[in-house]
Design brief:
This protein has about 190 residues and is of the alpha/beta class. About 40% of the residues lie in helices and about 20% in strands. The chain has two domains: about 55 residues, no CATH class; about 120 residues, NAD(P)-binding Rossmann-like Domain (Rossmann fold, 3-Layer(aba) Sandwich). It is built from eight helices and six strands, in the order ααβαβαβαβαβαβα. The chain has a six-stranded parallel β-sheet. Helix 2 crosses helix 3. The N terminus is likely disordered. Bound molecules: NADP nicotinamide-adenine-dinucleotide phosphate.
């Protein structure tokens, strides 16, 4: 494998090396697809103005979601612990909530925005907390779904609700070219 390609592969934000490329890279690609296909984010910045909340924005999934969301014409609110507020701001978030404070626990945007999309990467937040903060057609993409999330998903569908809860499981898929690339990285 050429040194140039090797450097390109190693220089990734997906964990580096063959396994990082294979698993984390695939998951991140799927998250990007979900943000484009489900949330309607335009990666070239051509989308309409949208308000987005990312919970656990300092985490491995959340920090990536914030950066992807900011590629479009978005206002992004992130939640994280106090020690990571500056980090989440540095990713481009317009406002940050400390989830351990009373305001943070409500998920209310400090500037009063209603969220068009929530990328939910934290755990244990009930639908009712999201619902009061959503725009009329707001969607919650739930990366930490629990059995109750599935019930809410079905209930929303059956009642033709405009707001939605969409459980999302990122399952890495094998891809012929990626498999070959991983083999080359491992062999080099
Ligand atoms: N659906 C899928 O396919 C899929 C794929 C990958 C991961 N996940 C799930 O997604 C979740 C996040 O994964 P991750 O890899 O990003 O985890 P991670 O890197 O461990 O980050 C989690 C972060 O969440 C923050 N946090 C904890 N409770 C919070 C709350 N109530 N509100 C806001 N932030 C909170 C903490 O931030 P501070 O340190 O700032 O306090 C922590 O750093 C996990 O539950 C994981 O199982 C799902």
């Amino acid at each position: 494998m050429s040194g140039k390609l090797m450097r390109a592969v190693q220089y990734d934000s997906y964990g580096g090396g063959a396994d990082g490329l294979k698993f984390k890279g695939q998951r991140k690609y799927q998250l990007m697809k979900a943000l484009v296909d489900i949330a309607g984010i335009k990666l070239d910045g051509s989308g309409p103005r949208m308000n987005i909340l990312v919970t656990a924005a300092s985490g491995g999934v959340g920090h990536y979601a914030v950066q992807l969301a900011k590629l479009d014409n978005t206002h992004v609110t992130g939640t994280c612990g106090a020690r990571n507020i500056e980090f989440v701001k540095s990713l481009g978030a317009d406002e940050v909530l400390d989830y351990k404070t009373p305001l943070g626990a409500t998920l209310k945007s400090p500037s009063g925005k209603k969220y068009d999309v929530v990328v939910h990467c934290a755990r244990g937040i009930p639908w009712s907390t999201f619902e009061t903060n959503l725009s009329d057609t707001g969607k919650v993409i739930d990366l930490t779904p629990r059995p109750i999330s599935m019930c809410t998903y079905v209930w929303k569908k059956l009642t033709f609700s405009k707001t939605q809860l969409l459980p999302l499981i990122l399952i890495p898929k094998e891809d012929k070219e990626l498999k070959l690339l991983v083999k080359l990285v491992k062999g080099s």
